[in-house]
Design a protein that fits this description.
heterodimer, A: three-stranded antiparallel beta sheet, 8 helices, 15 strands, B: mini-chromosome maintenance (MCM) complex, domain 2, three-stranded antiparallel beta sheet
């Protein structure tokens, strides 16, 4: 009898201990410290304009992620710019480069350039560096004489890039200028780096070209405002969880001649600034594609916008301006 | 005539008094919230940081831009870039910003200001594509 009582008291003790242990375990699991996420921002000059970075990441790693993003943007600014002594400048100076020694950045930019040129009837053309120089954009814009324009046009065009097995060669005088996609490409690269470094959600905006996205669990929907090309106010708001938006407008870096606006977006067919399109906004998966398409459509207008393959974008907004200054909106696709 | 005994100590209609009082208090509370939501604020983005300012007090101040200092003026619940070192002066010509969504951008300086609705801060854009 006494043994049975002893046994039952042991069993009770074991049950009690197990209960306590379970309670401790449950408490430990449910009160485990969740990572503290913060959203921090930085605005900084880069690529001749300003960049905005917003990062949602763990509190301790967010500042270092922002620092790394900034460093990469500055590196690409140096390598891809035409005013520095980076890779593109060296290629322009020497006129040739070995593809095996070429950075993945330049290789990718060339690939995208050929792709977008092929779907826009060569209206996107990064080989118009000589033409851009003749017009003096962006630092000293002025109206050049027609002979200078014709000369510059004669050495422009992607056919002046000769790519053999392991060499890329520029015809004499041909200059590359990736100004139309460098901001978009840098936004993509900086975004990718931030995600690799552990950011939960990221927004990168460089000179108006935006790449954003991240882990859907953060639930961050990015609000991207499209600027009205004439009124300096918000035209519309685009809500994006993941993707890119780029805009090309005739209001940036332009000069006026007898009341006529001459913008920095040059038509590679004529050598003169495009007219009739006030702004083009493109929403796509990657900023580099959106940026390149926005430039080509700004030149080609709605004809080009109509012919771009669906797979390259999700939304195109073209705002046209007639000679009387009336604006008309045209759009294709949706977000 | 009814005696005191006939009058019940508590009637269901007695609930009406606190109910009406509660409704009045709630109405006052929400009407005040509505008034607050009309408050506008000025957001100043510079190359260095982003500042949020109320438009309640008339003032002017300078911010650092890419090309030097810009002067921003707040007056009569409006705001504008009043001076800029940029060559085009488009930002100055933009004039007064008066309602939520209005913005003035000085691209050479890398500075832009916009008016946002204070109570809808969460709805202000994360970035502007231009």
């Amino acid at each position: 009898m006494s043994r049975r009582r002893k046994l039952s008291s042991y069993v009770l003790m074991v049950i009690l201990l197990l209960t306590v242990l379970t309670a401790v375990l449950v408490r430990a699991v449910f009160t485990q410290k969740q990572p503290e996420l913060v959203e921090i921002r930085r605005r900084t000059p880069v690529l001749g304009t300003y960049a905005t970075y917003a990062v949602i990441a763990q509190e301790e790693s967010a500042p270092s992620i922002l620092g790394a993003m900034d460093s990469l943007a500055r590196h690409l600014d140096f390598e891809l710019g035409v005013f520095s002594q980076g890779e593109v400048s060296i290629l322009n100076s020497f006129g040739y480069a070995c593809t095996s020694e070429m950075s993945i950045d330049l290789q990718y930019l060339l690939e995208v350039s050929f792709l977008i040129a092929s779907v826009t009837d060569s209206l996107f053309d990064p080989s118009i560096g000589a033409l851009v120089n003749v017009w003096g954009f962006p630092h000293d814009p002025h109206i050049p004489d027609s002979i200078s324009i014709e000369n510059a046009l004669s050495i422009s065009g992607l056919e002046n890039l000769i790519i053999s097995d392991d060499t890329i060669r520029l015809n004499s005088g041909t200059l590359l200028d990736f100004g139309a996609i460098a901001k978009g490409y840098t936004a993509d690269r900086v975004f990718d780096l931030a995600v690799e470094l552990g950011a939960y959600a990221v927004l990168v905006e460089i000179g108006g070209e935006v790449r954003c996205g991240g882990d859907p669990e953060t639930g961050r929907i990015w609000r991207l405002a499209v600027r009205n090309p004439r009124l300096d106010e918000i035209q519309e708001m685009i809500m994006l969880e993941n993707g890119a938006v780029a805009t090309s407008g005739d209001y940036e870096s332009c000069i006026f001649e007898n009341g006529r606006r001459l913008c920095h977006i040059l038509d590679p067919r004529t050598g003169y600034p495009q007219t009739g399109v006030a702004s083009v906004t493109v929403v796509a998966d990657r900023s580099v594609i959106a940026d390149a398409l926005a430039t080509a459509i700004a030149v080609g207008g709605t004809d080009t916008a109509s012919s771009v393959p669906d797979s390259l974008f999700s939304l195109i907004i073209v705002i046209m301006e007639d000679e009387a200054g009336n604006l008309t909106e045209w759009r294709r696709g949706e977000v | 005539m009814k005696s005191d005994k006939d009058i019940p100590f508590f009637r269901l209609t007695d609930l009406l008094i606190p109910l009406i009082a509660s409704l009045v208090l709630l109405a006052i509370h929400f009407s005040n919230r509505e008034q607050d939501s009309d408050g506008l604020m000025l957001v100043v983005h510079t190359g260095e940081n982003t500042e949020y300012l109320t438009l309640d007090r008339d003032t002017s101040f300078k911010v650092n831009g890419n090309m030097g200092q810009l002067e921003i003026q707040i007056g009569s619940s409006r705001a504008r870039i009043s001076e800029s070192p940029c060559p085009g002066q488009d930002c100055v010509r933009r004039g007064w910003l008066t309602s939520a969504g209005d913005l003035a951008i000085c691209v050479p300086s890398g500075v832009f200001i916009c008016i946002e609705n204070e109570s809808f801060e969460g709805e202000s854009p994360d970035a502007i594509t231009y």
